[in-house]
Structure formats: structure tokens, C-alpha cells
Design brief:
Length: 459
């Protein structure tokens, strides 16, 4: 369980500095004793270069679905209209052959075409409630104030409602090799289940990335971009919509296929009166009918809604799918195969290759119960740079790591105050002072930083 508590790293003692600085510190103590507590609390800092929020779905057990006041269902595709607002339907369940009580969308994807073999991308993915991650944040991102990842958010109780970005990049042919690749890789949080700067899922509980919670959490079990973030290629008409349906959904009896590992397709899910078709049957791509596809990206290279040469399906299977174990498991599947990303490639009418495309370790998922529950692709040729820009960041001023900036943090600001000169780390000055309190990142903690620190005080 990750609990990055700065108090554990604090130096035992610090020099107070010059008499002038010491007097200034004393004055600040008196000032704050009178003035704290007049500004609302703050959440984690939004990404500097966020990826847009895709269309998405919540699973049938999500509190946003089960709430008596809920206006959304687990077989609808959802969107967020504005920060701090509940999600609203984007695609009507009836349009895609669903709409019965108990139906649950399990994976969604819009058609993607015209992706060159050289085009590099990362995966954005979601996990389920049982996922623990067990891999610490990437050290480079941690040093640059992007500390949140699957393991961190799982420890805080709400990873299932988030979306994460891989720190490995890929082409349609597989992982891109690079030197110094760590095994396992980590990942970084790009979306929070509740508003973190206007780029998230509007889900429950209403917590920020820094908060700890034991409340029931929404589970993002499908996400898909239309365009341009989808990496679909050249803009065109409304792309076809591909999806799978969770086991036990009543509409599996009326759709043109009855397996949770079948992939269905609709030419325009925003229009009513058009029947969906089956894009591919489970057995056509080397799966068993009892398998469950719970994450999906379809590269329908010619946009003809038929699985034919050049098409690639990226998918992940739900825990318990028989193809993850048993007498004939998928070759090279990880011990926690539900966190592996697989690919199914149409070579010719009698040859479809199903294989592990991105093992769970490349996603920073190694826990035995980890599960990729939704995924999408985003163009990116430098995963660390993309992670740095799109990752949710920490809160300056929050010394005790409790999710807010208040009077409990102030006693730590005082001994960190160094004045306008650059600090000398060799003198015993705690470098954590700069991490937490150097708002303007000019290598000192001075009155400019204090001005922002007092602004961030919470009642």
C-alpha cells in the first residue's frame, strides 16, 4: 500500500537561518494564527496537458447507477457536459439493441482506421475494483510532481473510477523498444472519477486524487473517443461503434450473437432504427464462448464493419474467462492474464492470430487480481513526456499529505523559510521544503511562496 507521507522523510532538525529570517518567521507565525481559514480547500492539481474525457460507461454495480435518484443506466454510453455535474447519456441503449433491465455494456470502441504501421501510441486504460496495481509511481514523474498511479489510487480506495496512461508506447505491431525500460513499467493517472480540473468522469464518490475513501466507487468499464483523440486517422463521417455485452445481460438473447466475447457493431449509434450486427464471433478470433471481453479497441482499417485483412482488435478478458487458464490457455498469458492486452489479427480467411500484445507488466499491473476493465489509444511517441503533461499532479503546500492546506501544515512552512537566496542543500536544509512549499520553483521558500500558501488555506 503506497502512502507517500512527507513526514517520514523530514530531517530531524533544521537551522533557523539568519536573525532576519528568524524574525520574519516569528512574525509569520503570529500573522497566520489570526488569518488562517478563509479560503476553500483545494484538490490535486489538474494536468498541464490533459487528454480529453472520452465517452464512457459505468458498470451495473456503480453507485451512480444504483442510486435511487439515478437517471443513467449501465447499458448507456455516457458523457460529461461540465465539471462537477453528473454524466448524461450520449448514446441511447435502444439504439444499439440494448435497453432491457439488467443489460450492461462491457466494452466500447469507435472505429479507427488509417493508422500507419509507424504511428506510435499509448494506452489509456481503466481497472476494476479488485485491482491493486502493486507498482510504485514512476520515479521521474514522482520527482516532477506527478505521483498518482494505479497502486496509489487503489490504496486510496477509488482506482476503479479513474483512467491511467501507460508509460510504454506501441505501434500496431507491438511495443516500441527503448533503452532502460523497467520491468515492470508503471503508469500514471490521467483521469479521476470525480472532477479534478474539469477533465474527468463526474462519478462517485466525489473525491479528489489525494483523498482516501471507503465508499462504494463507480467502475468505468468502457471508454471510447470519437475523434480526433481516438487516433482514428483522417476525419470523416460518424465512425462505427463496436461493443461487447456483459454476461447475464438479457439482450444477449436478442442480439445477433449470444456470447460476452462476441463483438457487435452499429454503423451510427447516435441514430435510432438501425439494427446492430455481429462484427466477429468469439470463436472467429480464437476465444471461447464463455470468455468475456471487458476492454476493446477496434482498428477497422477500411471502415467496412467486417473483420477482414488488415483489421486488428485489441482486447482484454475479464477474470474467470476460460481462455486465461485451463487446459488450453492463450500462449504467454500472464499469471494475472486479465490485465494483459491481447491482439487478434486477421491474416487471411483461415488465419487469425490471437496473442499477448502488451503483458500486464508493461502496464504496471502485476497484482494477482489486477484487471484491465476498459481501454483506448492516444497518439504519443514519448510516454514519459505524455505522462508528465497528462498526469494529475500533487498539491503544493500540503505537508502532512492529508489532501488539504491548513493550519496543520503551517508549522512546517516556518522552518522551511529560507529568504530570497537560493538554499544550500549541503547545509542540512530539507529538500522536501522545496518539494512542498516552493510554489514558484525558484529554489527557495520566501514571501512569494507564503503569499500562495496563505491563499490555499482551508477552514
Amino acid at each position: 500500500m503506497i502512502n507517500h507521507d512527507p513526514l517520514e522523510h523530514r530531517a530531524a532538525s533544521r537551522a533557523w537561518g539568519s536573525d532576519t529570517v528568524g524574525a520574519l518567521k516569528s512574525a509569520l507565525v503570529a500573522f497566520v494564527a489570526l488569518a488562517f481559514g478563509f479560503v476553500d480547500s483545494v484538490r490535486a492539481v489538474p494536468p498541464t496537458d490533459p487528454v480529453s474525457t472520452p465517452l464512457f460507461s459505468f458498470d451495473i454495480d456503480s453507485p451512480s447507477i444504483t442510486s435511487p435518484s439515478s437517471t443513467i443506466n449501465p447499458d448507456q454510453v455516457l458523457r460529461v457536459i461540465m465539471p462537477d455535474a453528473e454524466p448524461v447519456p450520449a448514446i441511447n441503449a435502444m439504439n444499439i439493441g440494448l435497453g432491457q433491465q439488467g443489460d450492461d455494456l462491457d466494452a466500447i470502441s469507435f472505429s479507427k482506421s488509417a493508422i500507419s504501421p509507424q504511428q506510435q501510441f499509448i494506452f489509456m486504460f481503466a481497472v476494476d475494483r479488485a485491482t491493486t496495481g502493486d507498482v510504485p509511481p514512476n520515479p521521474s514523474l514522482l520527482d516532477n510532481e506527478v505521483p498518482y498511479n494505479v497502486a496509489d489510487q487503489a490504496a486510496r480506495g477509488h482506482a476503479a473510477g479513474d483512467a491511467f496512461l501507460t508509460l510504454s508506447n506501441y505501434t500496431v505491431n507491438g511495443p516500441v523498444s527503448r533503452s532502460l525500460r523497467g520491468i515492470p513499467e508503471s503508469n500514471t493517472q490521467g483521469k479521476n472519477q470525480y472532477d479534478e480540473g474539469g477533465h474527468d468522469f463526474g462519478g462517485r464518490p466525489e473525491t479528489g486524487s489525494r483523498d482516501y475513501s471507503t465508499d462504494d466507487v463507480d467502475d468505468v468499464n468502457g471508454m471510447a473517443y470519437e475523434m480526433p483523440e481516438s487516433a482514428r486517422g483522417a476525419p470523416g463521417p460518424t465512425p462505427a461503434f463496436f461493443y461487447s455485452v456483459a454476461p447475464g445481460s438479457p439482450s444477449l438473447l436478442t442480439l445477433p450473437g449470444n456470447s460476452p466475447a462476441d463483438v457487435f457493431v452499429h454503423p451510427n449509434p447516435f441514430a435510432a432504427g438501425i439494427s446492430p450486427q455481429r462484427y466477429v464471433a468469439a470463436t472467429d478470433i480464437g476465444l471461447q464462448s464463455a470468455d468475456d471481453i471487458d476492454a476493446l479497441v477496434v482498428l477497422d482499417h477500411d471502415d467496412n464493419r467486417q473483420f477482414n485483412p488488415g483489421d486488428v482488435i485489441f482486447l482484454s478478458l475479464a477474470p474467470g474467462s476460460p481462455s486465461l487458464g485451463g487446459v488450453s490457455p492463450i500462449p504467454n498469458i500472464s499469471s494475472n492474464g486479465a490485465a494483459d492486452i491481447l491482439s487478434a489479427r486477421f491474416i487471411d480467411p483461415v488465419t487469425v492470430v490471437l496473442e499477448v500484445f502488451a503483458p500486464s507488466a508493461n502496464l504496471g499491473l502485476i497484482g494477482d487480481s489486477d484487471n484491465v476493465n476498459a481501454m483506448e489509444i492516444v497518439f504519443c511517441s514519448d510516454p514519459l513526456a505524455c505522462g508528465q503533461g497528462a498526469g494529475i499532479r500533487l498539491i503544493r503546500g500540503d505537508w502532512d499529505n492529508d489532501g488539504d492546506v491548513d493550519i496543520n501544515d503551517f508549522p512546517e512552512f516556518v522552518p522551511c523559510l529560507s529568504g530570497p537566496e537560493d538554499v544550500d542543500l549541503s547545509s542540512g536544509f530539507d529538500p522536501l521544503c522545496l518539494d512542498v512549499f516552493d510554489y514558484d520553483q525558484d529554489q527557495n521558500v520566501d514571501l512569494r511562496d507564503f503569499a500562495q500558501f496563505q491563499f490555499d488555506f482551508a477552514p
